[in-house]
Each structure stands twice: as C-alpha cells, then as structure tokens.
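U., I forgot to send this yesterday:
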Amino acid sequence: MRLFEAILEANHRAVAGDTSASVAVSEFPNELPLAALTCIDARLNHLLPGVLGVPEDQFIWLRNAGNIITGPLSSTLRSLALACAVKGAREVAVIGHTDCLVCKTGALPLLNRFAELGISRTALPENLTEFFGLFASERQNVLKATEIIRQSPLIGPKVPVHGLLLDIHNGRLECVVNGYQPFDTTAGKFASALRQADAMMDKMAEIGSGHTGDIKFPESKIGEAVSSARDWLHRATEFAEGAGDQVGERTPPPAAEPKPAPPPLPPHLTRPAPVKFIVDFRKPRR
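Result:
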C-alpha cells in the first residue's frame, strides 16, 4: 500500500467511527512531504491536514479560490513546481470540496458583486468564465486541474498527481484521480479517436476491395445507377467481341450476317442531344 491509498483507507475508517484510524507516516519516507492545492474556503481550516492523516510538517498547503488551475505555466503551477523543487514535495494532490461557493457563482452574479465593490464592467476581462476559471462541477474542476498539472513541463514525470473531493460536512475523501495510475488525458482520448478512425478506414478498404464481410448496405438510387451501368457495359463488351471487328480486312463481311446493333444505353445514362442555335445575321436589328 502506497501513501495515497493509505490516506484514503485511514480516512474512510475514521469517518466510519474508528478513532484509532491513522496513517503510519514512518512507512512512507519517500512519498512525503505532500503538496496540496485546495480552495480558500474557511471551512477547510479545521479539516486539513487532519482528514489526510498527515502531520503539518509533512503538509505543504497551497490555496486559491476554487482550487483552480488555468494553465500549465500559470502562477499556481509555478508555486506547485517550487513546492516540489525547493520544499521537497514528493507527491501532489488537488483537493476540491463539496458546496463550493465558486462553483455556485456564475458570470452574471459575479458581475453584480464586482459592481457592489465599485468595479465597473469595463475594468474586467471580456470573458469572465475563462479568466476566473469558473466551473459548474467540483469533480470536473479537480479532473481538469490534475490533467493540467500532469501535462505541465514544470512538474516532473516522477511526481504523482492525485485528485480528491472532500465532503465539507463529514470530512470524507473521495478518490477522483489516483496519481499512481495512468491518466486518461485529452491527448489520450484523441489518440483513441484516431485509432478508431484507422479501424474504420481499414473497414472501408475491405469494402473497396469487395470484402464486405457481414456489413449490409441499404438500397439506394446510386447503387441502382451503378448496377445499370455495369450491365450495359457488359452487354456492350459482348457486342464488341462478337461483332467481328473487320477493320484492316480487305473483304467485307458476308451480307447474310449483318452486325448486330449495340444495346441502347439506359435512359438515365443517356445524354440529351445538343441544342443548336441558328442566328440569321441578314435580319436587321430592331
């Protein structure tokens, strides 16, 4: 059992009423200290780091409104990078919490609150949601933050990045992202979509070569046209082979064996006769 798993196991036991539940910190010398990013909500003050079972001297606490990370080179990411490089953090955890006020605040209410503080709309960025990182789901916000941290060049690949959701009412931790496991990033989803597209192209190649397998296609007008054209071409080929082309021979074929006429084209494959325009230049213009 590693540190993150031990934290979850001890936390769930403690919430269930086990007063002796704790994390044996001495068993994880290579996984501590732990750097954690949380919200600035004051209700977290008496919960952390106690709900983690980690002593304060092994807990590097970073906070911002909504535990939001806006980019891989943002100021919050810079602080996390320094927590690892300078303070020696071995693992990182993004800890969101339920009943988050940032989650409940939309762009319009935020504008109204800024107005109450005397801040005009023209002084604020055009896209408030993007600038302030507003979100509608605490869980999705944790997922997004952990993905950005993992993709940041400031955090080395040796640092596990976990995601947790803390119940603000009872202190129970829920695992959102286990940093010891591969993370399903957006790039990974895109690669999966590319693999599915490749498989589809292989199937289309089989269709083009005539190996349709069990795939069934509905009848269509295009299919009927292709079938009719193929039948006409087949009959025309038979005519050309059986007519006995006599080009280059001096003796004409016997009159008793006239050449059969070629089969007519299907109506939907024939071209209309060209339209001729006759202009009489002798008539004076009116």
